[in-house]
Every structure is written in structure tokens, then in C-alpha cells.
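> call design_seq(struct)
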């Protein structure tokens, strides 16, 4: 086992030991320290695993959830369904991973929402949507790579915020909200496609107007 594997094992142990306190106390340095002690982990190893304490534990909690989502999606024949169903499944699966630890997920969300953690929050979001796209079969490397991830980031962020405050049975309101967000995106994409078709038929409007300039 190399140093990286040891570090990952330590992180997993600390997170597991911290779960009992995170819902009540949040992602604090004290919770990280206590989890290390209760897990029988040397302070030097705790410091190596989470050098910035609470914020690093919050990031690890998020990435651990993304990894679990990816594993669940890998068991599905997801490429056999339409793209909107793939995205819905990915977002829903990611949120369902946190169902049993919803209060902890809320604490992590609030931690990352602090102004000083904006960069970390952006990195977490970028990682999440990138894994979602790759796990659902996306292989784009051109400009679509960025537009797809930016669009999904907006859909996922809005749905996660709604889900965190949703107390409906089996989160049905959240899934309806997700459907509406995806439908909005699909309508925008259809609008873009229709505009491109219209533009192809009409020609470049600037070139057309330029012709009138010299009449």
C-alpha cells in the first residue's frame, strides 16, 4: 500500500468516525480532531489527511458521495436511454446517496457556500458534473465539453438546493423540480437548433444588411 492509499484509508476512517458529530456540530476542526482520536489515528496522520481541517473534510464528504454515485451509475445500462433520462438519473442518484446523511450534506453545502470557500466549491461542482457526464457516456472533447458541464452545473446546483429544503414524501417535489429544470434546458436547446436552421436558410443577417447599405 503506497502513501496515497494510506492517506485515502485514513480519510475514510476519519469521515466514518465523524458522522456522529457532523450533523450537530458541522465541519469544524474540532470534529476532525475528535474523529481522529476516536479512530485511533495519529495526529500527524490526521493533519496529513486533512491539513485544513473542517473544510477538507467537507470536500472529502462531497467527493466520497460523487464516487458512490459513480459506482451506482456503473451498474446501470444508462447509455441505452435518452440523454435527458441519463442526466435525471445521475442527478437523482447523487442526491439519493446523501439521503441518510441529509443534515450532514446541508452542513457541507453551507460550509462550501462561505465566501472564503468559493474556489473549493467551484472545484467540487466541476468535479461532480464532470463525473456525471462521463458516467453517463459523454466522450466530448470539443466546445460541447464545457457547455454540457456548465448547463448541468446550473441544473444540479438548483436541484440540490431545492432538495436540501424538501420534506415531501420520497423527495417527489425535488424530482418534479428536476424534471422542470431539464425541460427548460431542452427547450433552450431546441430554440437554439431552430435558430440555427433559420439562420442557415436566411444566410448571415449581417451580410444581408450590408448589401442594403450600398443601395
Amino acid at each position: 500500500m503506497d502513501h496515497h492509499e494510506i492517506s485515502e484509508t485514513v480519510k475514510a476512517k476519519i469521515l466514518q468516525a465523524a458522522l456522529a458529530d457532523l450533523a450537530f456540530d458541522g465541519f469544524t476542526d474540532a470534529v476532525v480532531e475528535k474523529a481522529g482520536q476516536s479512530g485511533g489515528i495519529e495526529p500527524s496522520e490526521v493533519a496529513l489527511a486533512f491539513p485544513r481541517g473542517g473544510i477538507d473534510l467537507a470536500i472529502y464528504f462531497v467527493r466520497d458521495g460523487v464516487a458512490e454515485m459513480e459506482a451506482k451509475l456503473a451498474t446501470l445500462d444508462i447509455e441505452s436511454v435518452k440523454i435527458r433520462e441519463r442526466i435525471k438519473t445521475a442527478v437523482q442518484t447523487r442526491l439519493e446517496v446523501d439521503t441518510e446523511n441529509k443534515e450532514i450534506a446541508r452542513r457541507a453545502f453551507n460550509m462550501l457556500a462561505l465566501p472564503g470557500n468559493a474556489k473549493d466549491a467551484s472545484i467540487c461542482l466541476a468535479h461532480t458534473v464532470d463525473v456525471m457526464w462521463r458516467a453517463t457516456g459523454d466522450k466530448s472533447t470539443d466546445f460541447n465539453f464545457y457547455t454540457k458541464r456548465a448547463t448541468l452545473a446550473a441544473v444540479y446546483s438548483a436541484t440540490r438546493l431545492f432538495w436540501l429544503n424538501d420534506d415531501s414524501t420520497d423527495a417527489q417535489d425535488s424530482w418534479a423540480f428536476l424534471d422542470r429544470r431539464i425541460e427548460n434546458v431542452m427547450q433552450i436547446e431546441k430554440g437554439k437548433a431552430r435558430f440555427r436552421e433559420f439562420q442557415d436558410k436566411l444566410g448571415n443577417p449581417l451580410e444581408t444588411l450590408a448589401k442594403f447599405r450600398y443601395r
